[in-house]
Amino acid sequence: MRRGSILTLLGIGVIAGGVAAAVAVLLPWLPTPASREAGRIDFVFWFVITICIVIFAIVAAVLLYSVVYFRAAPDDDSDGPPIHGNTGIEIAWTLVPTLLVTAIGIVSAVVLAQNDAQGSDVLNVDVTAQQFAWTFTYPDARITTATLRLPKGRSVLLTLHSKDVIHSFWVPQFAQKEDTVPGLTTTLHITPDRLGTFPVICTELCGLGHALMRSEAIVMEPAAFDTWLKKQSQAARSSNAAVSGAAVFSDNGCGSCHTLIAAGAAGKVGPDLDNLPAEAQQAGKPLQAFIHQSIVDPNAYVAPGYPQNVMPQSFGSSLSARQLDALVSYLVDSSKKG
Ligand code: CUA
């Protein structure tokens, strides 16, 4: 091969590789990682992308060079010369991909093992998914919230459950996804390493409100997190005697499907709860009895324009009598104001 040809090939390869690298680096393909696990996954991503860019540059160079310099003349209808293989090239194109894929496999296995390894002092959080809301329980502090708060730099083990259908827990900045499956317990290990508020997204089609099944993960300084947890835990214990209807409303994710001005909720899947008095009138029931029935047996009366079987039918059994009473009076009071 002439020296000029090699230089041309090299030139095309460098340009093609440069364009591919610019597309990879300059466009924001992935969110900035906010956990150690996501950082490692990012590393695997860039390891594979680098290999891909080099292969792309080589293929593009040979391809473009051949198209330009080995083009058949317009009147050339002859067959190409008969060729019978090239042992050297065949060994190379078998060996090189084998080595590359093995390297990717080893790097991925190391990252998987590291991501599953929990540090000491693990924070346990139970994640419950239901149509169409997330709730987070801190078993040691015995509190339940609608927003996931996590301390920076500490190993967190999420234990995931579903009350109804398959959902999937995803915080893009944590890079991992984990399904919640009825009847099964799944786990996800996270070590947040960046302060901020990130979206919690349901990433498994789970029904009418799937697109709205969102919450937030807030990564806090460890000291601020401990203070928050202690305060919540004390508040939960002192208010145990008087169950708060507002807390039942938010802990059970009512606001992700329903609008209720008093709760700052703007859900659009189910009827607007500020219109409860009008709905009760239409259903021909006293307000309090109507609300109670609609929570315990949601299909008994479905507001016009809304389908049946979307509202979970499990609240009658999952809420205690005290919680149910508190929720009903809360809705009576707030809807009258609304
Ligand atoms: Cu829950 Cu989609």
Protein described:
Helices cover 45% and strands 17% of the residues. It is elongated, with a radius of gyration of 29 Å. The protein has helices spanning 3-26, 36-69, 87-116, 222-238, 245-251, 276-283, 287-296, 315-318, 321-337, and strands at 123-130, 133-138, 143-145, 148-151, 156-162, 167-170, 177-180, 186-190, 196-202, 214-220, 259-260, 265-266. The N and C termini lie far apart (83 Å). The chain is built from nine helices and twelve strands. The strands form three sheets. It has a five-stranded mixed sheet. Strands 4-10-9-6-7 form a five-stranded mixed sheet, covered by helices on one side. The structure holds dinuclear copper ion. Residues 129, 132, 167, 202, 204-206, 210, 213 line the site of dinuclear copper ion (CUA).
What key attributes describe this structure?
338 residues; alpha+beta; Immunoglobulin-like; Cytochrome Bc1 Complex, Chain D, domain 2; five-stranded mixed sheet; 9 helices; 17% strand; elongated; binds dinuclear copper ion
Quick recap of the structure?
It is built from nine helices and twelve strands. The protein has helices at 3-26, 36-69, 87-116, 222-238, 245-251, 276-283, 287-296, 315-318, 321-337; strands at 123-130, 133-138, 143-145, 148-151, 156-162, 167-170, 177-180, 186-190, 196-202, 214-220, 259-260, 265-266.
How much of the sequence lies in strands comes to: 15-25%
User: Briefly, what CATH class of the largest domain?
Assistant: Mainly Beta
Total number of helices:
9
* CATH topology label of the largest domain: Immunoglobulin-like
Give a count of the beta strands, DSSP E runs of length 2 or more: 12
